[in-house]
């Protein structure tokens, strides 16, 4: 294999377009896969004779393995070539998808999901790292805007596509739809992908990987089941969170002592990176309210179907996706600060517009307000992420993307558990439907407070006069 690890963006600029297409296709397949299965669970339960609590593990295990893999991608990027790592990740994902498609029973289906998640957990941060390496700092906003288009578009069509497929075909069709995309992407990547990340050959510290797995896995699992039907009363919640907190603390302390840490916490020494990472987490908690609470409200309180609730979310997700390339170019010209402030003002207003819902709230009202809400997120998420990682020197970019994605995973789990818990606690079942809707309104008040915190933080973003080394 030819060693091209020191390749810069100037050497083969003509290869950027096919390279980006390959990377975005892989990311699209990985993210689409996360959102396809939820609608199909009833069909899978009927076909394989599963209880709901058992079938739910098909989505939970994906989130857990994905969340566990992301923190160690910085180590993997330093240890292996760009090409080798991407092909391995896509190979794992393809093999897992094939197993899921032909799995005759639940255990084998779980194996397929684990393989899928292990590949997907590598693909997203690796792709971000490659984009930051091949584009000069003044063009990274546009590149990340294209990435934002993909990661918004895939979840946008996921529930709707899934609902249509399982209505027309067996649930295995979900995996047969993804498999050709992954195989074609793997073949094209084999021929055109270049090595753009630098191999530093960090030492493998087995204990760190074990601690990372139990630390992040325990916290993610604790919050994910806290957001489920049993809520915080589930005895597994405090146990998994305690294990997660203890091992994660141990992991962080160990990384600070190692000469070659698995995940470099020095990225938090860069103030803009720290600020934008926290800002992204706060906004994500506010964002999760729409994707989690609104479908519950529509299906359980307004009587809409799962497909209809997916269609309500679709315009907003599409607007968010198609806005990302535009906000990326605006970021390259003007920086993140005023984009973030503008977006967060809209987010605060639209979130509080969801705090006065009733049993008669129209489909159109929900769709329009949610669309503006998603537009606001497009103005914030990718620009602040890019602004933060831009402040890191090249040797820390892989650690920055891994850390950013890990924190996003954690905030998503925390946000879901928090808002579902608030919705359940604040509900007044004795008052009928309106009493249940009251819980939804209170959960959006909490989401709105989160958005206000984000708005305050956005005023502290600075446009740097000296950019990070590239």
From TrEMBL:
Residue spans crossing the bilayer: 17-37, 57-78, 85-108, 114-135, 142-161, 173-192, 204-223, 235-253, 273-298, 304-326, 338-357, 363-389, 410-427, 439-461
Keyword Transmembrane helix: yes
Database matches in InterPro entries: EmrB-like (IPR004638), MFS (IPR011701), MFS_dom (IPR020846), MFS_trans_sf (IPR036259)
Protein topology in the membrane: Multi-pass membrane protein
Species, as recorded: Pontibacillus salipaludis
Major facilitator superfamily (MFS) profile domain residues: 19-466
Gene behind the chain: ycnB
Protein's recorded name: MFS-type transporter YcnB
UniProt KW keywords: Cell membrane, Membrane, Transmembrane, Transmembrane helix, Transport
Compartments where located: Cell membrane
Pfam family, one: MFS_1
CDD domains hit by this protein: MFS_LmrB_MDR_like
PANTHER family: MAJOR FACILITATOR SUPERFAMILY (MFS) PROFILE DOMAIN-CONTAINING PROTEIN, MAJOR FACILITATOR SUPERFAMILY MULTIDRUG TRANSPORTER MFSC
Keyword Phosphoprotein attached: no
